[in-house]
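Task: complex structure prediction.
Instruction: return structure tokens for all chains below.
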Amino acid sequence: MLHGEHARLLVQRAYTDITQGDLIDTYARSAFEDTRRKAAKFGAMGSTIGATKPR
Amino acid sequence: MTEPPVDVDVLRDEIRRTYTDVSTDQDEQFIFPTGRAWAQELAYPEPELERVPDATVESFAGVANHWVLGRVEPGAVVLDLGCGAGTDLLIAAQMTGPTGRVIGVDMTSAMLDRARASADAMGLDNVAVHEALIESLPLADASVDAVISNGVIDLVPDKDAVLDEIDRVLRPGGRLQLADVVIHREVSEDARKRIDLWTG
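Output:
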């Protein structure tokens, strides 16, 4: 998903207290150069998000 | 629902094959980082991580650390979407304690076997696992207090179906906390059809 898409889907469902953590360059740790290259091409990163379901 | 860019059955088979390998060949190198060293680098919560057996943690293939956003409460009912070999599941089981309950769902049976065995080895009796798709959860409406997941939703073409299922099983006021892959540049239609880009 594009960065921001998780939050958009949660806002669409009226979730609140949406918090996002730092981005992690997960695939930079890959043992394979091809994976590192593809991840860099698309800007693929590990991300975190939390949200609360409306009452 | 719009037509998925890939054959979903082929994608699921490829994911099962890849993650069965992650479960059974823990010394192999994969295209994504794995294992206890990776979980420690992500600063996974201690001492909970330390107590989870290597049989599980060496198959850890998370993409980030959602625990930085918060812990789950003692006594909570927690669902782990795509629990794999059980690293997050068994950390959550320690956080909820014996008055809570954790439920893992995954579609790769080899991973679930490891999660079950590790729960037994840790003497945890508040852990249940189910072989199922995260787009079709075998759980009642509003039956869980928290949903966690790590590196799984990005593997599913129909994100809306996953979010709808999370919304169905999560109780009002419940918390969702996940780690997932995001991209910063649009992927072309041709690239979306490539299974290898879906699986890593």
